[in-house]
Design a protein that fits this description.
- The chain is an alpha+beta fold.
- The chain has 3 helices and 9 strands.
- It has helices spanning about 85-95, 105, 130-150; strands spanning about 10-15, 20-25, 35, 40-45, 50, 55, 60, 80-85, 100.
- The chain is globular and about 55 Å long.
Length: about 150
């Protein structure tokens, strides 16, 4: 039987209703390592990426032609039909029926199927929709991308 070596990093994730964040400590930095927040790159405006300590837990479902081609591309994700974070929050103020909010809250709501495409809530019939699990999976995947960029090894 093989034993697992101790992890170098201790990672904490806050999948929040409003914001998502990741903090970590490097266990190789002494007895009391500093806890640091991971910067999460995200679109702030079309074609403008910035590092932020929080990823707003917002998803915006785009329609064809809404943004110029390539304006929502990230170095690790090209051709997405959605945007996450700060731009999703801002764009959702303009078109709230395409903004997914509070996806985490829907995960444990007893009155809905968390696997069903029910978000954005109150979107018009025929609108593109996602499940609470799908939305939260995208938020967490964004943290994985951010972590892997900062810690390629």
């Amino acid at each position: 039987m093989t034993s697992l070596s101790p992890s170098r990093f201790v990672v904490g994730i806050d999948l929040g209703t409003t914001n998502t964040a990741l903090s970590f400590a490097d266990t190789q930095c002494g007895e009391h390592p500093d806890v640091k927040d991971l910067g999460i790159s995200q679109l702030i405006h079309p074609s403008q990426v910035e590092n932020r300590s929080l990823l707003p837990s917002f998803m915006y479902l785009c329609v064809d032609g809404e943004f110029p081609s390539g304006a929502l591309d990230l170095p690790w994700a090209k051709g997405r039909e959605f945007v996450l974070g700060e731009l999703a929050r801002a764009q959702g103020l303009k078109v709230p029926t395409r903004q997914v909010v509070s996806a985490k809250s829907w995960l444990s709501h007893h009155g809905v199927d968390r696997r069903a495409a029910i978000l954005p809530w109150k979107a018009p019939p025929g609108s593109r929709m996602v499940s609470p699990i799908e939305a939260c999976s995208h938020y967490l995947a964004e943290l994985v991308f951010a972590w892997n960029r900062e810690n390629p090894d």
